[in-house]
């Protein structure tokens, strides 16, 4: 382990006092912005590179399962629900993940003064989230999904698919019979 990663591992030991839990061999690179750290769970071998911002508001929780690698500048927010990132997932840099939308139905009120709309958001096991993607409230990704760089994702997507675009849509699915990735 490099000296820098060793330093990050030592920081993780200190963070165990603030987080709900931090698993074995997890590390976080500075700087790290935390809000509601006592409601954030990092399982074993979670690697978070510098610049992460993690926010758990109200009764919200964030759970990052085993062996997840997160690139620089992640921003993840959760309110009144458990936002889950499945095991063995890779999240590239500059990714935003949330289970919160801002209500804007009251036109006489500033959007920031209106209620939040909370929708379940979950990333399945073995997923790959490309650079700059936005995973919006209400997104459910099945296992082994690939999200293209800079995609804006909202909705439910099945296991074994490639998702890309703005708005993101399925551009390939794995065919279990032919054992090939195919266009829908």
Features:
184 residues, mainly beta, UDP N-Acetylglucosamine Acyltransferase, domain 1, 9-stranded mixed sheet, 7-stranded parallel sheet, 24 strands, globular
What is the mean predicted local confidence, pLDDT? 94
Helix count, per DSSP?
1
How many domain regions?
A: 1
Placed side by side, the strands forming the largest sheet appear as: 2-5-8-11-16-19-22-23-24
Shape: globular
Question: What features would you describe in this structure?
Answer:
The chain is mainly beta. The radius of gyration is 17 Å and the shape is globular. Helices cover 7% and strands 41% of the residues. It has one domain (3-182): Hexapeptide repeat proteins (UDP N-Acetylglucosamine Acyltransferase, domain 1), CATH 2.160.10.10.
Question: Could you outline the blueprint of secondary structure elements for this entry?
Answer:
Layout: H1 3-15, E1 21-22, E2 27-28, E3 32-35, E4 40-42, E5 47-48, E6 52-57, E7 61-64, E8 69-70, E9 75-79, E10 82-85, E11 90-91, E12 96-98, E13 100-102, E14 116-118, E15 122-123, E16 128-129, E17 134-135, E18 140-141, E19 146-147, E20 152-153, E21 156-157, E22 161-165, E23 168-175, E24 180-182
Parallel strand pairs: 1-4, 2-5, 3-6, 4-7, 5-8, 6-9, 7-10, 8-11, 9-12, 10-15, 11-16, 12-17, 15-18, 16-19, 17-20, 18-21, 19-22
Antiparallel strand pairs: 13-14, 22-23, 23-24
